[in-house]
Sequence to fold (231 residues):
Amino acid sequence: MKPKYLQVEVAGRDRWMISYLDVLTILLIFFIAVAAQSLEQPKSIGSVKISAPAPTIDILQPKPELHPLRTAIQQQLDHYGLDWHAEPRGLVISLPQAVLFAPGQAEINPAALPMIGQIAEVIEGIGNKISLAGYADPTPIHNRFFKSNWELAAARSLSLLDLFTTRYSIAEARFSIASYGSNDPRNPNDTPDGRASNRRVEILILDEPPVDETAGVPGPAAEAADSGLRP
Fold:
């Protein structure tokens, strides 16, 4: 019964702990090496290198680019305070019926002449072709002048064409006209305000090369104007 500090230490008593720590150390080094290899970039397989994927560029929705002729036209329209909007074919100036015409009539109101004069000044300064399109609401019309909204909308387009070509001497070859009647409404026709916004004439300044006004040869647009309607 000797005290513990006087007992003889038995050789090999805790040697198994040394071997266990060695195994843990080797496993730790192995996993660190495997992780380091998996993070290496780029990797090579034979003669082909695998690198991180390049950032993708979204080409499905390219940014819209304005037609080169539009910028100057937009600045002129803004200068006169004219309401316009852009469409794929060009710039559209929408003139409500209440400004241009009396209800059921196709004669242009004298009070609208200053505004039309501003539009004519813009058109005179460019060579683009112009489309005049008349629209109406679905309320039936039967008077001694017009049998339908188609005829009324067409007559209003023709009145505007006549004004541009006679009063402001803009070549007929630059114009075409159309009548949509009550089709293609801008707003629902179930309210008075909606129907009022649908009664209009739209002046479309087309994104087309300028025409030669001095050529003196009537083009398809002038022939369409003479015939009364263009589909």
In short: Residues 131 and 176 are 5 Å apart (CA to CA).
